[in-house]
Amino acid sequence: MWIAVTREVSPALANCELSHIPRSPIDAARAGRQHDEYQRALEALGCRLIVLPAEPLLPDSVFVEDVAIVLDEIAVLTRPGALSRRPEVASVATVLRDYRPVLTIEAPGTLDGGDVLRLGRTLYVGQSARSNAEGIAQLRELLAAYGYAVQGVPTRGCLHLKSAVTQLVDDTLLVQPKWLDREPFADFRIVEVDPAEPHAANVLRIGDALVMPASFPRTQQRLIDAGFKVIAVDVSELQKAEGAVTCCSLVFREVG
Question: How many separate domains does the chain show?
């Protein structure tokens, strides 16, 4: 059974943190409707939803991926790089403690879950403005006992590592080559985003399906042509908040 932890959209979404895109008006009510459709897509793919209520004082709190990393054996609570986002962690921690033992990144480390891409037993972590060297080192130390390797990956021009690369199947990645070097992923097959869709590299893999934003039809067609099952969802208002499809959920297997 897949579990997907989500959180309803904050009415204050328009006050979100932004780093690499210009601020534009956000319709929070429309974002909420789009988020509902996103959640229905997860349910249709077999996920059991755990939905947290909206946080009116935490604009970015719909992006639950950033506050935790959930592995088969353990969960790690992050310490987000944006100060405004650190109060988001506690309520997600309460949920995760029902499913996993929980460890924590401590100050002065910072780490955003959007910077963490798990490929097998290796976690690739973006060396970004949100995740610092101390946070990456703490993650490496916390997970060593569980047999995971942690490798830092420099990024450029994007918010998180998973803005630039996500997994399609075990041996294949979707990549925006302008935002990172391929060398850390030399052992994987690569599908590049369409050059006209620079933000299209973020897709959410659930089983044999990929959830991706409907706003990237050219990259979607590349994936379909490569044999992938793609579920397109409209998340255009969430994208104005520098969000994407992996950001809006914590998806993991129920164990035990």
Answer: 1
Q: Is 248 a catalytic residue?
A: no
Q: Which residue has the tokens 């590349």?
A: 222
Bridge-based pairing state of the strands 122-127 and 149-154 = parallel
Set 47, 158, 247, 248: catalytic member: 247
d(CA 42, CA 143): 28
Quote the strand ranges of 200-249, DSSP E. 204-206, 209-213, 229-233
Per the residue annotation, which of 35, 160, 199, 248 is the catalytic one? 160
Distance CA 252, CA 72 (A): 8
- State whether residue 178 is helix, strand or coil: coil
Q: What domain range includes position 126?
A: 2-253
pLDDT per residue as tens digits for the range 200-244: 999 999 999 999 999 999 999 999 999 999 999 999 999 999 999
Answer yes or no: are the C-beta atoms of 228 and 187 closer than 8 Å. Answer: no
Does 247 qualify as catalytic in the annotation? yes
Closest C-alpha among 188, 238, 193, 192 to residue 216: 193
The Cβ-side half-sphere exposure at 234, using a 13 Å CA radius, reads: 8
Whether the model clears a pTM of 0.85, i.e. scores above it, the answer is yes
CATH number where 68 lies: 3.75.10.10
Q: Could you give the CA distance from residue 34 to residue 40 in angstroms, rounded to a whole number?
A: 10
DSSP 45: T
